[in-house]
Amino acid sequence: MTPQELKSIMGSGLLSFPLTDFHANGDFNARGYAERLEWLAPHGASALFAAGGTGEFFSLTGHEYPGIIQTAVDTCRGKVPIIAGAGGPTRYAIECAQAAEKAGAHGILLLPHYLTEAGQDGLAAHVEAVCKSVRFGVIVYNRGQCRLQPATLARLAERCPNLVGFKDGIGDIELMSSIYMKMGDRFAYLGGLPTAEVYAAAYKALGTPVYSSAVFNFIPKTAMEFYRAVAVDDLVTQHRLLREFFMPYLEIRNRMQGYAVSIVKAGARLVGHDAGPVRPPLTDLNNAESEALGALIARLGPQ
Questions:
Q1: What confidence tens digit (pLDDT) does each residue in 96-142 have?
Q2: Which of 53, 83, 108, 262 has the greatest number of beta carbons closer than 10 A?
């Protein structure tokens, strides 16, 4: 897949980040992961992001990573494109990007470098080094310590033809609007705040109609229903699902930092697609929280 083909895929449809399956001891569960992808692939996502944020990229070792991406590519070949997460220090991000390209992934989502602050020149050098290490398409993720400004993105777009996508995980409306006004259709844009459905209508108004859904991992039918409602400006359906599911879901998610991932793993377990525990430093939901989530899911009906 060429970078422009990846950009086209990002231009419409719902995208999602599958969980990464672990055994009870925390080791990667390849069979469970393949079964998860087989279950999710037919539900209509335009692409799946393997080893992304919801897939706990931040906890994966360099030894595990290539096998996870290869499993995703092999399982979804001919069904749905696979975009791999990559990130961390520049040299490690390059290793991940090259491993993903070798495995046959269709592009990467470049996650933040983590921890240390950096100026715009340093961030640009990091992104450029990763882009130039591969031939396939790259989507950059503004989140955490990686907060690229419009002028920086414009320079990167000139230097890196394969930088074709921008994902926002910050929620700064002024910054997002400035980036869109500066870059126009040079990039495909993706809304990427946790539980992106809550922000979907606002981001569509900004020129970002596509977003990534974490809840697709356990309520794919409802996730697609919500996406279609956003696409046609069906506020009645949006407000019903926000009121009946997403807002009470946020009340559980917001009880603990890191629950944006943990609650998705709990949801998958509750619908019969257990992905195992989260890895430290994340913690799993307690029993009462899982029961509350189960009640919310039950109201939605079969998925």
A1: 999 999 999 999 999 999 889 999 999 999 999 999 999 999 999 99
A2: 108
């195992």: which residue's tokens?
A: 276
* Helix/strand number for the chain, H first, E second: 13, 8
What's the pLDDT tens digit per position in 272-281?
999 999 999 9
Per-residue pLDDT reduced to its tens digit, 233-255: 999 999 999 999 999 999 999 99
CA 97/CA 92 separation, integer angstroms: 9
Which residues, in sequence order, are CB contacts of 211 under 8 Å at separation 6+? Answer: 14, 15, 190, 191, 192, 196, 197, 199, 200, 203, 227
CA distance 19 to 12: 22
Residue 171, CA distances (Å) to 6, 35, 144, 190, 193 in order: 24, 33, 11, 12, 7
Strand intervals (E) in the chain: 15-16, 47-50, 82-86, 107-110, 137-142, 163-168, 188-191, 212-213
Structure confidence at residue 28 (pLDDT): 98
Contact 143, 192 (CB under 8 A): yes
